Amino acid sequence: MAASSPASLAVGLITATALLVHPAAATVSGSAAVAAAPKPSEAQLRAQLKQLNRKVDKLIETYNLKRVELAKAQQAATAAQQRLAAAEQAVATAEQRVAEIARLRYQSRDASLPGFMLTPDGGGAAVLEQLTAEQQAVVDSVAKARDDQKKAVTAAATLATELKAGTAEVAEQRDDAQDVIDDIKKKLQDLVPFGPGKKSDGSWAPELPSGSDNITPRTRLMRAQVQKSFSLPYEVGCFRSGSSGEHPLGRACDFMMSTGGTMPSAVNNALGDRLADWALKNKAKLGVKYVIWKQRINQGSGWRPMSDRGSITENHYDHVHISMN
Predict the structure, then answer these.
(1) CB 325 within 8 A of CB 204
(2) 188 phi and psi angles, rounded to 5 deg
């Protein structure tokens, strides 16, 4: 099946990536210690993740195209069946007309018949001949309709068989790729650094804002990790004077998911969900104090609703707010 080509490429990529993500130990002869292959860098892991995601998308695209082809073939089969039914009805009607005229000609001495039907060699015979020719044309159309219907049904059945096999193949390759993607994501998660100033009891030492951006080192590290982990659609706003909360202290950033006080698109809304989830997962590492997103606040123990502040922006529907310790 056509889908096997991208799937085969994915197999090679998955195999190569698995070897890189789980490097085998190199055995040194004699009493030498077993040396592990060097771990891939963060940049290498991110590149592998991006490549694997493209391959998985290609597999799904190939599968979906086959689904579309099957739907078209099934529609063609249905249309051919409808044409066949119409043609068969036309044949039945024509046969009925010819039989009726033949019967009337046989009873041609009936004075109630029209004149053209009382003359065996005249117009009546011509009409009968014409009707017989029309009937043959309809019969021919039925034969063609049956042939079209048979071809359409065969095409739909063939595609259905291919789709079933291709679906299983694509699903298997997708699952294999997803396993490697999950492994890479875990390793990327492990690469998230600890924020500065974390004390042995798990609390965080206070930090002064610094630099031209007027934010604390922990906030700067968190922002850098977010920018590294996500493709952000809009600007990031951190220090803001004259407001409440952590912004004037240099301990908060707003990651915009839309502009102009409008609701984010479905794609950016999902991105905001992932970003908020990521920040909470790395709360203990980075020193995240709380996250606000979509009129809810999460301090690490679950989302709680917030009061209505009157606008999309004030209710944090257009940006993810991350405050730091």
Answers:
(1) yes
(2) -65, -40
The Cα–Cα gap between 209 and 216 comes to 4
What is the end-to-end Cα distance of the chain in Å, rounded? 56
Cα distance between residue 129 and residue 120, in whole Å: 12
For 175-208, write each residue's pLDDT tens digit.
888 888 888 888 888 889 999 999 999 999 999 9
- CA–CA gap between residue 206 and residue 238 (Å, rounded): 18
Count CB atoms within 10 A of the CB of residue 243: 10
3-state secondary structure of 19: helix
Domains of the chain, each with CATH number or no CATH: 4-190 (1.10.287), 217-324 (no CATH)
Write the CB contacts of 17 (distance below 8 Å, at least 6 apart in sequence): 48, 52, 180, 184
Token pair for residue 206? Answer: 């206070």
Q: For residue 288, give the 3-state DSSP assignment.
A: strand
Give the pTM: 0.57
Token duo for residue 99: 């039989």
Task: Give per-residue pLDDT as tens, 269-313.
Answer: 999 999 999 999 999 999 999 999 999 999 999 999 999 999 999
CA atoms within 13 A on the CB side of 180: 29
CA distance 36 to 50: 25
**C-alpha–C-alpha distance, residues 325 and 322, integer Å:** 10
